[in-house]
Amino acid sequence: MDKKIAIVTGGNSGLGLATAKKFCEKGIRTYILGRNREKTEQACAEIGPNAVPVIMDLTHFERIPAMVDDIFKKEGQIDILVNNAGINMKKDFVEVTDAEFEEVMRTNVSSVFAISREVVKKMKQSNGGSIINISSMAAQYGMPKVIAYSASKTAIEGMTRAMAVELAEHGIRVNCIAPGFIKTKMTAKALDSDLERKAKVFSRTPMGKMGMPEDIADAVYFFASDASKFATGTVLPIDGGNSIGF
Description:
Layout: E1 5-9, H1 14-25, E2 29-34, H2 37-47, E3 51-55, H3 64-75, E4 80-83, H4 98-123, E5 129-134, H5 147-167, E6 172-179, H6 185-192, H7 195-203, H8 213-224, E7 235-238
Parallel strand pairs: 1-2, 1-4, 2-3, 4-5, 5-6, 6-7
Helix pairs in contact: 1-8, 3-4, 4-5
C-alpha cells in the first residue's frame, strides 16, 4: 500500500492492538486511541515508530472533532478508521438499569457514529477511504445476559449497511467484522467464570477452538486494503464457524 494513515479505536489491547500491529507492520501510520495513557503509550512503544498514541475517551463527543482535525492537519489525509473500542456487561436482563444500558450504547454505538461522522468529512477531502466496524457474535444470534451489548452490536451492523450505501459515491467503503470467540483477556474473564457457557461455545464451533487476535487483524487489513476494493456493506464473521454451527 502507498502511504496510508489509520485510526484504531481501543487499540491498546486485544483485537485493537493486534490490528494496530498489523497495520504498522505493513507501513501504515496508525493512531491508537485509548482512554488509559499508560496502556496506550506502552502499546505504541511496543509496536514501534509507526504507532502514535492518542489519549481519548470517545464518550466525550465534544472532543472528537478537534482530535480528528489535529490528525488530519498533521498527516493531510485519513484513509482508514477501525471502530473497535467497546465495553461489555454481563447481567440478567431484569437487573440492567437504564444508566447501565445507556452507558454501553453510548460507548459502543454513539461514539462510533460521532467519530465516523468526523472522519468521513476528512475522507471526502482525500478521495475516499475504508471504515471497518467491529461487531460480535452477539449480533448474529441471541445470547442471554448481554442485552445491552447485543443491542449495541446489532446497531453497528445496521449502521454499517446504511453508511456503506450513503458513502459509496464518495469512494468510502464501510464493512464490518463479527468476531467469534477470540483469545483475549475480556473473553477469558467472561468464559472462565461461566463453564457452562464455555462448553457451549466449543460445542457449537465446528473448528473446535477459539480464534486468535491476529485472525481478526488479518480480516481488518483485508478490508483496509485494495484487495477488498469492490466490497462494501458486508458483515464478515471470523468465528471458526460458530455462527453457523449446530
